[in-house]
Model the fold of this input.
Amino acid sequence: MTACAEELILSRANGIIYIMKLSLHWTRLQDSALIVASALIVLLPISPLILPAPSRDSGVFLYVGWRILNGEIPYLHIWDHKPPLIFYLNALGLWLTGGSKWGVWLIELAALLLAAGLGFKLVKRIFGTTAAVVSLSLWLASLTLVIEGGNLTTEYTLPLQFACLWLVARLDEPKHETRQLFAIGLLCGLIFWTKQSLTGIAGAIALYLTISRSYARQWHSLGRDLVMLTAGFAIPTIGIVAYFATHGALTQLWSAAFAYNFVYTSNGLHHLLRYLTIQTRFVVTGLLPLALIGYAAALWMWLTRAIFFRNHRTLLSVSLIGLPLEMLLFNVSGRAYLHYTMALLPWLAIFAGMGVYVIMHHWPKVKAYEGIIAGTSIVLLAMSLLAHSLTSGGQTAYSQATARFSTHLRELTAPTDSLLLWGAETSVNFLAQRASPSRFSYQFPLYTKDYTSEALIVEFLDAILAERPRMIIDTGNLATPIFDFPITTPAIEAKVEAIQTIYRATGSLAGGTLYEPAPATAP
Done:
C-alpha cells in the first residue's frame, strides 16, 4: 500500500471519529436540554413568582431555617418532628439569597435536575433512549400532580434514591463493589435523616443481599456487604447525633423526631384505601399502567431466568422487592398525603422504562414509531404544566392572600416583637419575619394525647408569659382550640388564667381572632 493510500485511509478514519464525537456531543446536548426543560416545567408553577407564600410544611422548614441563621438549634429552640437535614437545606437556601425563598427554590431545582439526570441515564443505559425519554416524561408529569407547594422532604430524597439505584445497577460489575455498598449506605443514611419512613430502598437492598448471598452460601460476602452498608449509614448518623449532643439538644431531637413520630404513625393501616386512591393519579399520566407492565415483565423474566434479567440481576431484583415494600411503608406514616407518593417515583421510573423496552422488543413494528412515542410523552409532560396551572388557582390565591396578610403583620409590629399564631401557620411567622415566643411555633404536639404532657404545655404557656408576644392570633384551627388543651391540671389552669388576664380579644384579623395585651399590662 502506498503512503498516499495510507494517508487517505487515516484521513477518512479521523473524519469518521470526528463525526462520531460530534454526534455524541449533540446527543448529550439534547439529553441535557430535555432534562433541564422538564425540571423547569415541574418547578416553575411553584416558584416564589407564582406562590409567594409557602405551604404549611414548607413554611415550618423555612421558619426553622431562618431561626438557624439566627443562631438557634432545631428541637431545642424550635419544635418540629421532621429529621434535621431538611432544616439545614432551607437554611442554606436562605443564606444563599439573603433570606429570599428563591435560594430554596434553586436548591429544589438542583435536586430535581440531579434526580432527572441520574434517572434518565440509568434507564437509557439499560433500556434505551426511547424508554428513557418516556420514563422521564411520565414520572415528572406525575410529580406535578403530587408536589403540592414544593420544598418537601420527599422532594429532596429523589436524587438520593436515584443515586442509590445507579450504584445498585453497578453492583453487577465486580469492580469496587465494597466502595459502592459503602456509598449506598451513606446515601441511605442521608435519606433516613431527611425522612425516616423512606427506608424502602435500604430495606430492599439489604433483603436482596441477604437472600442472594444466603442462597449461594456466601456467608463471608454477606457479612462484608452488610458491614459496608452499615458503615456508610453510620457516617451521617454519628455526625448528626454528635452535633445535637454537643449543643445539648439530643433529648429534644429524640422526643420530637422519634417519640412523637411513634405516636404519629400508630394508626396507619386504616388509611390503606385512601393511599390506593391517591396512587390512581399516576394512572392519569400513564406512568402506573406502563410500570405495572414492566413489573410483570421483570417478574416473568426472573421466573424464566431470561438472559436480559441475568444481565441486570441486581437492579431488577432490588426493584422487584423495593416497589411493594415502599408501598407497604406508606401505611406506617398514619397519614395519606399526596407528596408521600413521591417515594414511588424512582421505582416506577425503572419499571416504566422496562415496560417500553418490553413493548418494543415483542412488537418490532412499534419500534418504527419510537420517535412519535417519545414526542408524545414529552407533549404529555408539557400538558401537565397547563393542567397544573388550570387546577391550582385556589392554591395561588391562598398563597397570595397569606403573603399580603404577613406583610400587613410586619407593618403592624416591630422587628423585635414576637408573634404567636395559635394553630399551624408558622409560614406567617417566616414571611412576617417575626419569631414565635415559644419553640412550639405551631401547637399540634401539645394537642396530641399520647405525646403531650403537663410539662410541655406549661413550658409553652410560660414562654408566652415571659416573651409577651405583641399579638396572639387564634387561627380557628379545630385541632388546636385556644386555651383548651386535651389535659388539664391546676398548673395549666393557673397559666391560662394568667395569660387571659394579660391578653384581651380586640377584634378579628384575616378571619382569626386577635388578642393583644390590655393597656395596663402591655409591655
